[in-house]
Amino acid sequence: MEDQIDPWKNFDVKDYDGICKQFGIEKFPYREMKDSPTFMRRGLVFGSRDFSRVLSCIKKKEKFVMLTGLMPSGKFHIGHKMVADQIIYYQNMGADIYLLVADIEAYNMRDKSLEELRKIAVEEYLVNYIALGLNLKKCDLYFQSSRSEDAKKSNAYYRLIGLVARKVTANEFKAIYGDLHPGKMISSFTEVADILHPQLAEFGGPKPVLVPVGIDQDPHIKLTRDVASRMKEFNFVPPSSTYHKFMKGLSGGKMSSSDPYSYIALTDTPEEVKHKIFKYAFSGGQDSVEKHRKLGGNPDVDIAFQLLYYMFEPDDKKVEKIREDYKSGDLLTGEVKQIAVDKISAFLKEHQKKRELARKQVEKFLSSS
Amino acid sequence: MEDQIDPWKNFDVKDYDGICKQFGIEKFPYREMKDSPTFMRRGLVFGSRDFSRVLSCIKKKEKFVMLTGLMPSGKFHIGHKMVADQIIYYQNMGADIYLLVADIEAYNMRDKSLEELRKIAVEEYLVNYIALGLNLKKCDLYFQSSRSEDAKKSNAYYRLIGLVARKVTANEFKAIYGDLHPGKMISSFTEVADILHPQLAEFGGPKPVLVPVGIDQDPHIKLTRDVASRMKEFNFVPPSSTYHKFMKGLSGGKMSSSDPYSYIALTDTPEEVKHKIFKYAFSGGQDSVEKHRKLGGNPDVDIAFQLLYYMFEPDDKKVEKIREDYKSGDLLTGEVKQIAVDKISAFLKEHQKKRELARKQVEKFLSSS
Predict the structure, then answer these.
(1) Shortest Cα distance from B162 to chain A (angstroms)?
(2) What are phi and psi of A243, to 5 degrees?
(3) Which residues of chain A approach chain B closer than 8 Å at the C-beta?
(4) Which letter does DSSP use for residue A249 in this model?
(5) Which chain B residue has its CA at the smallest distance from A158's CA?
(6) What is the layout of strands, in order, in the sheet containing A240-244?
């Protein structure tokens, strides 16, 4: 299936198999992942490092950690949903979730105070996470700017950043990241410490940690694994990772928070969804109805079909029927778009109801913590 | 007086006036410093930045902070005493003392655990500080590896390191420090945050902060003052600094923790003091008694005399009499050395008694904090 359909093939990475071979990334065993999100079992998560360790924990019901970060910026859209769905999936599979809010990163890049960024993180991200099914009470949620309300934990976490910095040479850093900007360095060492710190004594000691990332984040992962092996006194288990392909934007280019017409936000109204899909979603159909009936459409590049395939039509039979009918010309572009609009709108309607409940929950959670 | 006697003139820095002019360092108003340590009122502290701000606080009895660090390594010697005497002096002048133990730095350079380094800091440094007169209870003593037992304070301190890193460019760093080693960077940004953090809201907000340092530390001070001016949201008062000359080692070279014959340790016995002064202290005397009686000695290069002048003979009349008698040849090298040995031994005898009392106090302090 993956060889047939790859809406991301023409995006940043052209050859995922080549990338895997080149960087020693293993295939992701997506067929083994029970009850996994639609995009996962349809191959959007394509690669991994040391994932067998995590798979073994899941099978044996042993403890492991899944860690991911969020950057509080702009609207929560379907690209973010893909990350959220993975968090929720691994939580259901028994992972302890570490959820970091990269507020210092955001503070550095945007003209907002830490207080404002905290508000965005809560209202845009956490509310959506909960509405999508995350049990926030069972997560270790933290802000980079203040790791914990337990000073022992905070001290251990920040201390680790300092120790990591002293394990990396300038040449090594330059080879990985291209230059030696101090801000970039501190970001990178903080990311390494984020991934490793669940294994500190103050956080329960060594254990498998999974970090699901885009392929562009692999340099961080490799650096973290290298540094971990140098810090022998900590007995770190080398962290595991998975790699997902990026969601394409509506017009076929990059999905970007700064361009609202490149994504569907989880707060979009049915009208906005309809407008965006019909007006902006790149079509694999032909120029005219006559030509389309004769030649058929190309689901491999049709964004409306991709949205159905990877996210909004989990039923295998139904989605294959749509694919075949589109290819044969029985289904017109507008008809596929309408199916996508209906499915997405139905999802959003339910989701937005859940958001209202989630909002109350998150406010309660944050005021009590 | 300063122009006459400068045991440090031939050490690292040859021309302190030139250095001051070159780097825009102001003279230190040592004649205005009431009840100051002998070395201070005799000109060993030679330069300053923005010191008038601190002087005004002292005169008006307004709050200010004095911050200094200690690196737990080896024996506590008379070079360290000079720093301790400054801390105690400013504490008596009304300063809130911030005392940082650079355990992460030491950890990085030495083959010792953080636990061992903590022990050295306590037994070698804190015990001596207290015995010399420091009121440790009134100090904010902290370890780099765990800023505070109050998570709000710890988070604010470590957050500041991250924010500082993002305010410095690679070119700027390279211009100051010569290269871009990640460990060096994190050390430097930690030092900047150390100096600035007493002004964070969590530590009581903006206020004058004084950092007494050796001239070799001025790059840190300048960087800190630059960074402070860029972080407008914090309203930092530019930190003040003073600069002292370095204590020369016994043989006239560098005083070094790794060479026990270059210093007098505050735990040395009278026999060790006698042995070190008579055997190793560089003499300004002549080759023979006859020649010495005729030509006299040179107190400007005589280490035994320097020890008396800057530290162990606070009485102005007495020390000037020794100087004149040595210059005239009335006092022989051995006689000046014996005066120094007697004075130092008497001081150490008293000090070592105080150490025993101090030890109990520091153990009590640390177990209660």
Answers:
(1) 7
(2) -125, 125
(3) 104, 107-108, 113, 144-156, 158-159, 161-163, 165-166, 168-170, 173, 179-183, 185-186, 189-190
(4) P
(5) B158
(6) A26-27, A45-49, A240-244, A209-214, A65-70, A96-101, A139-143
Top-confidence residue, A296 or A360: A296
* Secondary structure (3-state) at B99: strand
Note whether A190 contacts B146, CB cutoff 8 Å: no
The whole-angstrom distance between residue B326's C-alpha and the CA centroid of its chain comes to 29
Contact state of A155 with B154 under an 8 Å Cβ cutoff: yes
Which residue carries 């295998």 as its tokens? A316
If one counts every other C-beta atom within 10 angstroms of the C-beta of residue A22, the result is 9
* Chain B closest-CA separation from residue A91 CA (Å): 28
CATH 1.10.240.10 domain range(s) in chain A: 260-354
Residue A50 DSSP one-character state: S
Residue type, A335: E
Distance set, CA A7 to CA A119, A162, A284 (Å): 34, 41, 11
User: In chain B, which stretches have pLDDT less than 70?
Assistant: 1-14, 368-369
Most A CBs within 10 A among B116, B145, B159, hence the mutation to make, goes to: B159
Other CB atoms within a 10 A radius of the CB of residue A353 amount to 11
Which of A155-159, A173-177, B40-44, B283-287 is the least confident region? A173-177
Closest CA to A1 of A37, A48, A51, A44: A44
Residues forming CATH 3.40.50.620 domain(s) in chain A: 16-247
ipTM: 0.85
State the Rg of chain B over Cα.
Answer: 21
Record the tokens describing residue B178, joined without a space. 């010569």
Residue A24 burial (C-beta neighbours within 10 Å; 0-12, 13-18, 19+): exposed
pLDDT at position A177: 84
Contact A180 B170 (CB under 8 A): yes
Interface residues of chain B, partner chain A, Cβ below 8 Å: 104, 107-108, 144-156, 158-159, 161-163, 165-166, 168-170, 173, 179-183, 185-186, 189-190, 233
Q: For an interface test with A, give the residue of B100, B104, B174, B181 to mutate (most A CBs within 10 A).
A: B181
Over the stretch A6-64, which tens digit does the pLDDT of each residue have? 333 333 566 788 888 888 999 999 888 889 999 999 989 999 999 999 999 999 999 99
CB A315 within 8 A of CB A345: no
Percentage of chain A modeled with pLDDT above 70? 96
Q: Is A16 exposed, middle or buried (0-12, 13-18, 19+ CB in 10 A)?
A: buried
Task: Name the CATH topology of B16-247.
Answer: Rossmann fold (3.40.50)
The CATH code belonging to domain B260-354 is 1.10.240.10
Backbone angles phi, psi at B145, to 5 degrees: -80, -15
From chain A, pick out residues whose CB is under 8 angstroms from the CB of B183.
Answer: 165-166, 168
